[in-house]
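Practice problem: predict the structure.
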Amino acid sequence: MKINIIIFGQLCEVLGEKLVMENIADTESLQQTLHKKFPALVNYKYVIAVNKKQVITNTALNEDCIVALLPPFSGG
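Answer:
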């Protein structure tokens, strides 16, 4: 199973704009895998969104999910 991930803001400096990960069952596994593959990511604050909703607890993923990594936003 492939998960397509869209990356925003300063996270693109570390990960690029898009990323495809395989065999990721949930958001906790995704975060652990990303931190192993991209150690610099540990220094960034970000949230994970699944299907346009920010997730706070571990969430199951499937191929149809839209996953995004979002840095903190500020604005006016």
